[in-house]
Amino acid sequence: MRVAVLAGGRSLERQVSLRSGARVEDALASLGHDVVQIDPGGDLVRRLKEERPDAAFVALHGPGGEDGTVQELLEILGIPHTGPGVAACVRCMDKVVAKHEIRQAGVATPDWVAFNATAFRELGAADALEDIEGQLGFPLVVKPAAQGSSLGVKFAPSRDEVPEALVAAFSYDDRVLFERYVNGRELAVGVLDTEPLPIVEAIPKQEDFFNFEARYEIGRTTYVCPAELSGEETGAVQDAARRTYEALGCSGFARVDLMLGEDGAPQVLEVNAIPGLTDTSLFPQAAEAAGLSFEELVARILELALARSRESAALPG
Amino acid sequence: MNRPTTTHTRMTRLLALPRTSAHFRGLVTGPEHTSGEPRADGPPAGVPPHRRAHTSARDLERYGALFAGRTRVMRSSAMRDLMAITARPEVISLAGGLPDTASFPPETFAAQMTRIAQESSAEALQYGPTEGFERTKECIGEVMAAEGMYPDADDIIVTTGGQQAIDLVTKTLVDPGDPVICEAPTYPGAVPVFCSYEADTHQVAMDDDGMRVDELEALLDRLARDGRRPKFIYSVPSFQNPTGVTLSEERRRRLVELAREREVLVVEDNPYGLLRYEGEPRPPLYQLDGGDYVIYLGTFSKILSPGIRLGWCVAPPPVMEKIVLGKQAADLCTSTLTQYFVSEYFSEGRWRDYVDSLTTIYRERRDAMLDALDRHFPPQAEWSRPDGGLFLWATLPPYIDTGDLLAKALRDDVAFVPGVAAYVDARDSSSMRLNFSASPPDVIREGIRRIGRVVWEQVALYETITGEHRVAPPTEAETSEMDATGGEVLPLRRREGSGDEAGR
Fold first, then answer.
1. Chain A residue with minimal CA distance to B91?
2. CA distance B16 to B255
3. pLDDT band with cut points at 50, 70 and 90 for residue B474
4. A156 Cβ contact partners less than 8 Å away, ≥ 6 residues apart
């Protein structure tokens, strides 16, 4: 089968995407597929029309690739593609929309307040900061709404750090959210075709605790998979992940990041519609813990994409 | 079936190269291969490429435990990924440190290389002495004489670029935990060297006259009280990378005096000394000291070509002996071929003319950048006004992190180096290094205009959030009016879809 691997793109996560894509290409090649490599740019549609792939493996991360833009084009061209459809991408990429959906589905997510830059510039949102701080408490987490990676995510330990954290977060997006900080264990759950994989726990080194960017460096964070959790905790965490996946309409695969609070209750932070597939990424690690090699994982994701495309073709209208 | 094309394009991608780029503007590049044809050195048809078994995250965790402490770097991988994006062809990059090699006459290059091939082919293709050829040292003598230095040829070793000279000196002198002193900020390329030899690096603040020698003295006192003596003081005294600042003559004299009094070595790194655009030359530390306590590092990179990888180190004989051993271990000898090229080139006697032509080009570019900064940066920003070199240093209000700002700037297709790379302790995250040697004046003006706009936005946002006094940024109309009066702002291709993204 002729499979186009879409990797690279223009987002800040370009390099991660290239690493995911390179690994996927190798896996597809060793599965015997004819691999076409496409780095989406101005010529994306032309390339797709020329190459006429039977399917597209979307290994893009961040805005442009994970937000539904590329998926929309693939759907117009009738090319089956891996990962979620347009609507799910849109929901996952925007952390605020995702949190609304998650809460609606009855899954816990930390309290939050979201603002865009206009609210500050034109509506005097600065005057509401005190109320927000009162509601959410400190430390406060400040995040850009639409950035997939940890870039721009800041802790504000006290009121003095809030303006600086806001300026940083607004560097990545025109909308940011304040989120109540959950003290607890940091977990990631890969979901493959609605089935949760073994849970990964990230244990940051103490000195990097408040530095999100450093926490994804090899040797600076220890990952444990499967995480050492009680049967009850594992059940609660996997259930929260599956319900989140379904609520957002994900398909194929996704990774749900959550915190296991000190009270033993999981709280979902965000969903990665197209999780990283690099050598160090968590999703392949979880698949491996479930006994699935990377090749098998890639084969399965591709299979799910084709099945979904057949299903939607069979539907009337 | 797998197509062999995948492999080479993939290798290109692993090197973070823009595959469609016709020319290079960023930090990293290399030869490009853009056609769809299999490369001659690719695997034969039917052989699956790249059989390296992929490592799993767990394997990497295992390796993680094996890494030496010296491999730990300050910059996060997220930041490295961000810097890789600056190499996109549509990005105006003020991030690199590239000299303008386009102004070197290709016919001169061709003639020299032809003569070498015709007259000295076998020798030029052979190994050479570890210390370098005598003829190369004569060229080095000429360059140093132009700044009033006359070292003994035996004190010189030819190195693979100035960067290797920094590495060799550090390797020779520094044991793990040994104190090393440098400027704050310092040359970003020196930071990984000091880290990799596990030096205990101390940075001394700078002002408009260069390193604060009084603070250096206080630091030496503090170290002495703990019974410690730094192995060396590393300084780029002229048109420093990254600030562009030059050490005053008074401080130069005091620094050299201090080195003698305290018996501490000074490593003078002087890649830019001859690239002066105004003002009187300052005496190099090596000249003031006579070479007893000053180790001198030079390079052909900025006066001829960085591609030839030729630099040098001048050190007292006992130190030199050890450096030679280190060089032997590292790479046996510096490229014979490029040493021949330099000898040929210098034998024509026109190298000063080329430096003069570079000076003219860079002066105009520096002026364009300073002018654009005046127009487009908010009053809350400050920047240096270098008399030479390739860089200037802009400092923004402390609430702006230039790493985050770079992410925003990249949405407008413009890049700079966040200042944090110039510190071992990430103490200042609100500065940026701007290069003016690699782009023509119009591109520089447009790049600064774009950076200025994102800085204005962040300043205005901060002031809105904190309720501080508000300085209104210039409107687009005002900006273009300024451009119109200043003229010459090219309508460079704007990023497609940037409008959408702004609304994201």
1. A10
2. 42
3. low
4. A138, A139, A140, A141, A142, A162, A164, A165
